[in-house]
């Protein structure tokens, strides 16, 4: 049919389960079959459609492992188990993630968007393991992880005017991105001014030397 939108299934690999599961959930919802997985329904045709979509998005080796399962919910849970692991493995991974979260600091070479992306990615992985990091905790970690030398004034100001327990993560990131843009423009203007000053000084030095040589050449 002309104009029909084709939605491709994302391909699962060894490192992208968290993002894959989020994308695949949307694909299954678009095809009206997500309810066969959550909460889990017994509609055979819809379950078969969901399985067909899942099989398009996983490697052949994994298809061989889950191919004998009868429902889409069972297939989904088997895929999840193969990548998330047992409860003990999940607990160990969560402990590692929380340790990484506590240590997170923005690097001097990072942009606000990049640092926020790292926090969001870790949060998504934690949620996939069953542990949701509350938004106020994300907001406070984001602010505390910023380099104080560069952002101390805006951080202090935001802590005074906003309730960090109700401010969304995206809101606080947006405010810092706007501030980052202001800093960038100011630094760029300062560099341009310094360049003009150096050019002017070089011209004056050259002009002065030229006049000095002239006096020496024609003096008695």
From TrEMBL:
Coiled-coil regions listed: none
Lineage: Eukaryota, Viridiplantae, Streptophyta, Embryophyta, Tracheophyta
Signal sequence bounds: none
Protein name: DUF4219 domain-containing protein
Protein's organism: Microthlaspi erraticum
Domain DUF4219 stretches: 12-38
Stretches with biased composition (Basic residues): 210-220
UniProt-annotated stretches for the region Disordered: 190-220
PANTHER family the UniProt entry points to: OS04G0629600 PROTEIN, RNA-DIRECTED DNA POLYMERASE
């Amino acid at each position: 049919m002309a104009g029909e939108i084709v939605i491709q299934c994302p391909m699962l690999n060894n490192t992208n389960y968290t993002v894959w599961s989020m994308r695949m959930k949307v694909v299954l919802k678009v095809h009206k079959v997500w309810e066969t997985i959550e909460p889990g329904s017994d509609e055979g045709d819809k379950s078969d459609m969901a399985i067909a979509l899942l099989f398009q998005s996983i490697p052949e080796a994994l298809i061989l492992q889950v191919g004998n399962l009868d429902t889409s919910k069972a297939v989904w849970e088997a895929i999840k188990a193969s990548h998330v692991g047992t409860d003990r493995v999940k607990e160990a991974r969560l402990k590692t993630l929380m340790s990484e979260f506590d240590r997170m600091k923005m690097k001097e070479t990072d942009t606000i968007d990049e640092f926020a992306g790292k926090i969001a990615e870790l949060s998504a992985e934690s949620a996939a393991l069953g542990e949701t990091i509350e938004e106020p905790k994300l907001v406070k970690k984001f602010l505390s992880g910023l380099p104080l030398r560069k952002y101390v004034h805006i951080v202090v100001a935001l802590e005074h005017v906003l309730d960090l327990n109700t401010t969304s993560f995206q809101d606080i990131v947006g405010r810092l991105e706007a501030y980052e843009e202001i800093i960038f423009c100011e630094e760029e203007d300062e560099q341009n001014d310094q360049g003009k000053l150096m050019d002017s000084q070089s011209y004056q030095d050259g002009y002065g030397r030229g006049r000095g040589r002239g006096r020496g050449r024609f003096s008695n």
